[in-house]
């Protein structure tokens, strides 16, 4: 680690440190693409941590929505027809696969395949 990198870590905010850790973890996940590099209408695999989970019906159909953060950006995950999914909770690390699209200017994946990953220290 260079002196410049050490100094950056000393003066970095907690959010910057967490973002660096998430980016490093996502890079270690083989085959995953950083959120900031996701192209619209492409299949992708992304690894990160769930920041929030909300039940938000869409046109009368239950929909579980989650925000995934990988240190480079956020990705909205939407499971249509679901009220809850065991293990999908804030703070949980997951790896998802699905088709990326834009909804109201935000990257979104509907009904992604997911793999629960261990939390740090587990």
TrEMBL record:
<protein>
    <recommendedName>
        <fullName>DNA-binding protein</fullName>
    </recommendedName>
</protein>
<dbReference type="InterPro" id="IPR012340">
    <property type="entry name" value="NA-bd_OB-fold"/>
</dbReference>
């Amino acid at each position: 680690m260079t002196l410049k990198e050490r100094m950056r870590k000393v003066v970095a905010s907690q959010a910057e440190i967490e973002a660096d850790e998430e980016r490093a973890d996502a890079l270690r996940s083989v085959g995953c693409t950083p959120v900031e590099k996701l192209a619209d209408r492409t299949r992708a695999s992304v690894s990160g941590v769930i920041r929030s989970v909300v039940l938000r019906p869409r046109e009368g159909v239950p929909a579980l929505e989650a925000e995934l953060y990988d240190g480079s950006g956020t990705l909205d995950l939407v499971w249509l027809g679901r009220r809850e999914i065991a293990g999908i909770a804030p703070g949980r690390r997951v790896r998802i696969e699905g088709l990326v699209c834009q909804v109201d200017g935000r990257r979104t994946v509907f009904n992604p395949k997911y793999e629960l990953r261990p939390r740090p220290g587990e």
